[in-house]
Amino acid sequence: MDYPARLQELGCEPPSEPPDRDIDSIEAAIGVPLPSSYRRFLDECGGWNRDILCPSQEPTPFGEHVITGFNDAAEVRGLLDSTITPRNMVTIGYGHFGLYTCLSIAGIDRGSVYALDSNYRVFWSDEEFHLRFRALADSIREYLEHRRNNALPEKPAGYESIYLLAEDFDEFLTRCLPCPDDDD
Question: What is the distance between the alpha carbons of residues 116 and 60, in angstroms, rounded to a whole number?
């Protein structure tokens, strides 16, 4: 995949300063090589930003996953000790309202990309959703209905607040969409 061209299609912009590209230090810290497609992306496009959407492959308590920017190598390294990100993942991007984008680096889901909800809305009661928000998006209402009916996918321990976006990094970028303009 031509990563710079794909990000330009999505309306993303490169960073104003050269990004950190010390990928070897990340791999030394985590003890495994990064998935090759993400490693190449990080080398070519770390630090690019602009709001883009990636639809989740499962219901979420936050609606659309919006990615505001992609981390460069220094930002990925800086988040390796996060207590929010599951152990077998690195944080590769950030969004609004406590949303992050993570990449699995080990295990049976190695290479999969997830939305991480650092607000842990999965543990909020229905009442808390209604108290915090005047109007809920239809997708959040659907999530709550699925939850009440025990119709959400089962998740392993530690994965309660992450939501599958794609099974590999290139699929993730292919699934991403430009955010609608605020002017529309």
Answer: 10
In single-letter form, the type of residue at position 97 comes to: F
pLDDT per position as a tens digit, 133-177:
889 999 999 999 999 999 999 998 889 999 999 999 999 999 999
Cβ contact 114:164 at 8 Å: yes
Return the structure tokens found at 151: 């119709």
CA distances from 41 to 15, 26, 38, 127, 153 (A): 14, 14, 5, 41, 30
Extract the tokens encoding 90: 């690195």
Give first-to-last CA distance, the chain, whole Å: 31
- Enter the tokens of residue 5: 């061209």
Low-confidence ranges of the chain (pLDDT < 50): 182-184
What's the count of helices (H) and strands (E) in the chain, helices before strands? 7, 7
| Residues 6 or more apart whose Cβ sits within 8 Å of residue 51 | 66, 67, 68, 95, 96, 179
CA 150 to chain centre: 25
Q: How many Cβ atoms are within 10 Å of 153's Cβ, its own excluded?
A: 11
Q: Report phi then psi at 90, rounded to 5.
A: -120, 150
Whether the CB-CB separation of 112 and 167 falls below 8 Å is answered with yes
